[in-house]
Specification:
- By secondary structure, the protein is mainly beta.
- Strand 28 (346-352) and strand 29 (355-363) form a beta hairpin.
- The strands form 7 sheets. A 5-stranded antiparallel β-sheet has the order 1-8-7-6-5, with no helix packed on it. Strands 21, 22, 23, 24 and 27 form a 5-stranded antiparallel β-sheet that branches.
- The protein starts with a strand and ends with a strand.
- It has one helix spanning 42-49, and strands at 4-5, 52-56, 60-65, 68-73, 84-85, 91-95, 102-106, 112-115, 123-126, 129-134, 138-143, 151-155, 169-178, 183-192, 195-203, 208-212, 219-225, 231-239, 245-253, 258-261, 269-277, 283-290, 297-306, 309-312, 318-321, 328-334, 338-339, 346-352, 355-363, 365-367.
- It is built from 1 helix and 30 strands.
- The longest helix is centred in the N-terminal third of the chain and has 8 residues, at 42-49.
Length: 371
């Protein structure tokens, strides 16, 4: 079921968080008889103290609360996945690529949990509960605010895919996104090495909906839930060879299996990953493009859907950028082109109230609470 290390009854205490700056994280420091102040939501905390968000490097997961930071070491390796937050905004999380371990940081107290999930993807389900897929057919879940170990939430037998196998064999499945009503699972068909196809399933309360394959989105599938609770944005690639693929983005309504393909990404070879919904239904996606020549450099940028195709989200290339708000612009500015095989990374910049601050280097991805 996976083991965990966390503060709590019967568990070993492992708090690696480091608090810096002007954020006070001390509970119960009032005088006797004073009423306990109400807990603020992440949005209220942001309005009072500044942005609440998280970023990840290859070796660290960091939560930013106004002027303070909460840190957890981790071996996140080559993954470009966005940082996740629980639905209540109380925990940020990411998955270590080699150990397949979930690392979570408490936004309020800096507590660090390490859960041996044997997974590559984790999705926020409800409250502080997160979930992941465990082969051959279990949806696992765990409440990060509780001391109860992870446990199977649902036994699932995936039906046959409406898209026939293409000469490969089944190679496990991943829980890639979730809403209140649906879990989106990608079942991978593989021949080994770089060749794979992704077959989608939507798991609802009363039924499992086999959706099949989405054209162009075969390898490296990533997904994000839309605001309506039943539409997801998908990003991935169709591989042409071991060194070149074409990135694709699409949306899918799991209630009707209606797919809307977005324009093809520019570049001879390209990749699309880390999709995200923004205000007004705008879709943004992280991209890389390169020439199919040995040693060719790759360029990165985050693009947004536009009437005539794709447009940059900013005035200069960025590895990642959170949806803009009235308070701050939070982005990871890309550096010089690098080897196309390298994980893109850049400098974390926060612009707020006319001031521009560089907070960190070698940053791979961002995340922010939605609660």
């Amino acid at each position: 079921m996976g083991s965990a290390t966390k503060a709590g009854a019967g568990w070993r205490l492992a708090v690696f968080g480091v608090v810096t700056g002007a954020v006070a994280l001390v509970a119960g420091c009032g005088t006797a008889g004073e009423p306990t102040p109400p807990r603020l939501t992440p949005a209220e905390e942001q309005a009072a103290n500044g942005p609440v968000f998280a970023y990840r490097t290859e070796g660290e997961l960091v939560v930013v609360r106004g002027a303070g930071t909460l840190r957890a070491p981790g071996s996140f390796g080559y993954s470009s996945a966005a940082v996740g937050f629980t639905r209540d905004g109380r925990y940020a999380f990411a998955v270590e690529t080699t150990s397949r371990t979930l690392v979570a940081v408490g936004v309020r107290d800096g507590s660090v949990s390490r859960i041996e999930c044997d997974c590559t993807d984790v999705a926020a389900l409800r409250g502080s509960v997160v979930g992941w897929w465990r082969d051959p057919g279990q949806v696992m879940s765990m409440d990060l605010a509780d001391t109860t170990p992870a446990a199977p939430e649902r036994e699932v037998e995936l039906p046959s895919s409406p898209s026939p196998l293409s000469g490969g064999s089944w190679d496990g499945a991943r829980l890639v996104a979730a809403t209140v009503d649906y879990l989106l699972v990608a079942r991978v068909e593989s021949r080994g090495l770089w060749w794979e196809k992704s077959h989608l399933y939507a798991i609802g309360a009363d039924a499992i909906l086999p959706l099949g394959r989405v054209p162009g989105i075969d390898a490296g599938l990533a997904a994000a839930a839309g605001p309506d609770g039943h539409t997801f944005v998908l990003a991935g690639a169709t591989a042409r060879s071991a060194s070149c693929g074409i990135g694709h983005v699409a949306t899918i309504d799991v209630t009707t299996n209606e797919v809307q393909e977005l324009p093809e990404l520019p570049g001879e070879c390209s990749a699309a990953y880390s999709p995200r919904w923004g205000a007004g239904g705008t879709i943004t996606v992280a991209t890389r493009k390169w020439a199919d020549v040995p040693g060719a450099p790759g360029t990165v940028d985050r693009l947004q859907s536009a009437a005539q195709g794709w447009a940059p989200v900013g005035e200069y290339p960025v590895v990642d950028m959170l949806p803009r708000d009235q308070e701050a612009i939070i982005e990871v500015v890309a550096g010089e082109p690098t080897d196309a095989r390298d994980t893109p990374r850049g400098v974390l910049v926060v612009q707020r109230g006319g001031a521009r601050s560089e907070l960190a280097t070698q940053v791979v991805s961002l995340g922010a609470p939605t609660a």
